[in-house]
């Protein structure tokens, strides 16, 4: 692994900045990169920004007052730092906002104990504290509509006036090999080599067999059944180890189409299931207070600019999603990305850059519900390759940060090989911070993170690969995603990398190369909301990929 603290102003920096690409159009690019390092290291505000976004305004569920307040705070900060045209740009979410204000769950028979859980978003409150007997409703796997109907009808009288444990308990085995926190150097070099790069690992695609109901369809039918048959509440299994809970949402966004629903930690769900299997009567008490916010039907993206000079009509963008899920305070998904991008533009204004192109930051909402905010923004401002708006040809790239607190290891741009080559030149001075290189993609499939909203339009979106740290294993969308899980040095490095890349894109003689009319890939289908491409775990062995004057730990 890396040393616990890696100096951001490394001794090798001077040599690195001297090889900054001369094609950037400014003889002092290397000097500016040094100033970015110094400002981002000696006067960083990124942890203060993270404190505010997580401790003050977390969680930041789309449509909630917290997200709106976080956006307004960010707008004010951007103005205070000297950016112009700072604003909240509205888009139509189409659903009321939702917040959970109070929740408690207790096992009251045959023993008394507190239960640990999270309330499912866009589900209703209980009518005050509700105590009821628990019954378990076990479901067939990937059923047909007829199979599910038979299962539900057989349980119709059992669920009335009860709290229902839905599904079987998930057996979560003990993990003997912890995933690595850093990427392996050989893996990264293979993935980002200029010639024949290794493909990014992908999860197997598991579609629903023909004639069978999808998990979402099963859930919606079970919700309707429980509501219609008078169940008082629903308990789901989080299915993860060590008390981790991922609580998402009722996909209809209509609280009248569900019963009060709690995702219990796997350990508590299993305890109740075993008590029932042993023939004991189990009673649980739930107390849930949720609130709807009608003004949340309009959501907002935060936008501000550093004005350009001779090419001000051309725009380089950087951004991250500001919204989060509600089980925790959304620290690594994605307050870290938002704070890094805010810090990047703060650094650039603090050192007084005068970029040739306009630099525009955007903090998105609605990402967790399917990239809704960035998609609306791209459609409004740029259109698409097939139906461009006036700003389409003047767009010069969008850099995105998501997926945790780790260091940036490489960039992936939507564009031809020449676009990746240009980015490799741009990130060469950042090798000591762990940036290995850049590659390109031809995929216009939207999904995973906000850079793909630009890719889908045929524009050069730039995604970042980060060290996983604890992202997939612990924090992603879970109740553990808090300020305490942030790696300070890594987030500082994220901001320095973002500021350095965006500045060079804004100064370069050329915009990022794009596919021509003849080579532009066809638009792809859109995945379901909330899906992500694989964020694979690195191997646990091998040297780390960050270069430093100190030897890397093994």
User: What structural class do the secondary elements suggest?
Assistant: alpha/beta
Q: From the coordinates shown, what is the CATH architecture of the domain at 13-95 and 296-507?
A: 3-Layer(aba) Sandwich
First-last Cα distance = 6 Å
Q: Residue-averaged pLDDT, rounded?
A: 90
Summarize the structure in words.
By secondary structure, this protein is α/β, with parallel strands linked by helices. The protein has a domain at 13-95 and 296-507: Zn peptidases (Aminopeptidase), CATH 3.40.630. It contains 15 helices and 16 strands. It has helices at residues 13-18, 29-42, 46-56, 65-80, 145-154, 156-159, 185-192, 215-228, 266-277, 331-350, 372-381, 417-427, 451-456, 471-475, 488-507, and strands at residues 84-92, 97-109, 113-114, 117-119, 130-137, 163-166, 233-237, 261-264, 283-293, 298-306, 311-321, 357-364, 395-400, 408-414, 437-441, 461-466. The strands form two sheets. An eight-stranded mixed beta sheet has the order 1-10-12-11-13-16-14-15, with helices on both faces. An eight-stranded mixed beta sheet has the order 3-2-9-5-6-7-8-4, covered by helices on one side. Helix 10 (331-350) links the parallel strand 11 and strand 12 (357-364). The longest helix is centred in the middle third of the chain and has 20 residues, at 331-350. The radius of gyration is 25 Å and the shape is elongated. The N and C termini lie close together (6 Å). Residues 1-6, 11-27 and 526-554 have low confidence and may be disordered.
